[in-house]
Amino acid sequence: MNDAIDSRFLELHRVQARGAHRDLGRALGRWGAEACHRHLVRSDAWAQVMACRDRPEMPAMRALLHAAFPWIEEELAGLAEGLELPPDDVFLWNSRGDLWALAPDGCTTVLAPRRLSHNEDGDPGFAGACGLLEAQPAGAPAFAAFVYPGSLPGHTFAVNASGLAMTVNNIRARRAEAGMPRMALTRALLAAGSAREAVSILQAHPRMGAFHLGLGQTGQAQTWSVEFSRTAVSVRPVSGAPLLHANHAVHEAQQALPQVITASSAHRQARGEALLAQGAPALSILADTGNATEPILRRSPADTDQENTLATADIDLSGPIVRWAVYAPGAAAPHHRFEGLRRL
């Protein structure tokens, strides 16, 4: 791995929030407001998502969220207040992958027994503006998560006080019918006490968009590769050979899912599987640039999906407490270390 990293990629702000869910959302909004007004609301991605405001699915999406997770609705309201943006716009942005298959969210994950390793790929315009949130919501488990300005926590990588770890990969599903926004579902998972409970939450609600999750928890000998979409929640235990997941559904139960498979996702999946077959370590795979056009470690301003790797997480679930580290893209040494939720 390479230590010669552009300094703007090293910066992950420490964000701390506690209290009622509206307060947590407001704190996130205030932290992310500058980056959102400087970059996000001027971006093509924002314009694409805002153009979806009159989609016929919107009332049902809102009603489902209100009925099942009013506390997430409160977080979104607080987020809008802190961002000083219209609540409808913030709801739309946090439903982007449900409404638009080409939303700029990526990621690559290597799953092994008792370990999750993950490249967080997103909008290069947020390089240096993302954060590590340490949250203590009232009446819910504390958690730590990578956060983007303007977005709920839960759709990147995270660890909670129950010893649950989660990584999230975009799946670009097409023709979604009205359902629960996928980022609301993954936010709800941060309150789960176990991987089993997390899967139950996904199964209990009508889903709109699609995601891949890597789930793991302390005390368990395996991790789980989970793909969820409108039609199915598929779970593949990882108890032997490691698996790699890019940004398209690969489980047998999802083979009929209408989806966009970009060249980047296809090449990362193929290259990662080849490196796994050679016995390459997870962090070496995530730092790989062997395919110069479509590398796993994505740093190019000309990336074909308009995404770059903004951080790498390595989550060790082999002991009684989650030990995890966060690296700048391609760096040999971590820039942040945690035991559970305690920053070292």
From TrEMBL:
It comes from the Bacteria. InterPro entries: C45_proenzyme-like (IPR047794), Peptidase_C45 (IPR047801), Peptidase_C45_hydrolase (IPR005079). Residues 116-325 form the Peptidase C45 hydrolase domain. This is C45 family peptidase. It holds the Pfam family AAT. PANTHER family: BETA-ALANYL-DOPAMINE_CARCININE HYDROLASE (PTHR34180:SF1), PEPTIDASE C45 (PTHR34180).
